[in-house]
Amino acid sequence: MTRHEKALAVLTGAVTALALAPPAAAQDAAEILNRTAEAYRQIRTWDIEQTVVVETAGIPPSRTERRERYAAVEGKHRWEQDTRMSIADGRYEWTYSSRTNQYTRSEQGPVGGGPLPMGYWTPDAERVVRARLAGEENIVVDGVAVPCYVVEIERGPAPGSAPGSPPEPPETLWIDKVRYLVLERQRRTSPVFAPQRIRTTTLTRIQVNEPLPDSVFTFLPPDGSALETPASITPPAAAEPATPARKKKGQR
Question: What is the pLDDT of residue 2?
Answer without folding.
Answer: 42
